[in-house]
Amino acid sequence: MQAAKIEEIIKSTIFFRVLSSSYYTFKAAMETVGHIGFNLKDTFLLLLAGKIDFKKVIKEASRTGVDSLPLVLMISWLAGMIISLELATEMVKQGGGHFVGAFVTLVMLKELGPIMAAFAIVFMEGSSMSAEIASMKVTEQVDAMKTLNVNPIQYLIAPKVVAGILIVPAAVVVASLTGILGGLFTSTANTELTVMGYLESVRIGLFLKDICASLVKGAVFGGIIAVVSATIGYETEGGALDVGKSTTKAVVWSITIAAIFDYIISALFI
């Protein structure tokens, strides 16, 4: 009795509750990482075996790239305009006007373009992917697929991952070009910079290494968004409330993991 009472007192302390919550949170996070890793491995094995339906890949690529394109264009244009608005006037005053186009290009191509495209796709399609698969899971449609000897990974997850890897680099290119043009518009409207002067600065500041870094980030971000969102939806248990929680979790995890890989890729392409 004494031991049970002591155990109850310990479990009621704030320290124990915080420690216990941290443990279970860490455990759940590691399980999620494990599921993501296994699904990514299965996707590449299916791809190597030629067992992925590329008609479905094209459909998913259209959904991911085209449906999110208006948001990608809008936020990229605004990002380019804001950067130029903040810097162009001061740089021209200090005699550095011929660097404005190069600066905007590097920022948009290497960082803001990939990140803005990834964020737009996460908010528009990542959450949708997770909710769609989570709804199928809680309504036992996934179990029905297994009963019919259909591989859910092959049908639900793999096409989305391959589509993300293929289409997001194109979205990144569009986002970067839109941001550069937004910078051109603001720079020429608010300073004495000319269109030709801005474009010449872009040409001088643009290197093949920067383009490669941007495309690699796009492919990695596309794969991350798809596999994370689909996996979290696939692992959902419970009911409608859990579908909503999975949707939020998919967005948070996608953004977090994309930010980590953004740093890694940036470090590799310095």
Question: What is the compact description of this entry?
Answer:
The chain has helices spanning 2-11, 14-48, 54-67, 69-93, 100-138, 141-147, 152-190, 195-205, 208-234, 240-268.
Helix content: over 70%
Element order: H for helix, E for strand: HHHHHHHHHH
Poorly predicted runs: none
Q: Assign the structural class, choosing from mainly alpha, mainly beta, alpha/beta, alpha+beta, or little secondary structure.
A: mainly alpha
Biggest sheet architecture: none
Description:
The model has no long low-confidence stretch (mean pLDDT 86). The chain has one domain (52-268). It is built from 10 helices and no strands. It starts with a helix and ends with a helix. The longest helix is centred in the middle third of the chain and has 39 residues, at 100-138. It has 270 residues and is mostly helical. It has helices at residues 2-11, 14-48, 54-67, 69-93, 100-138, 141-147, 152-190, 195-205, 208-234, 240-268.
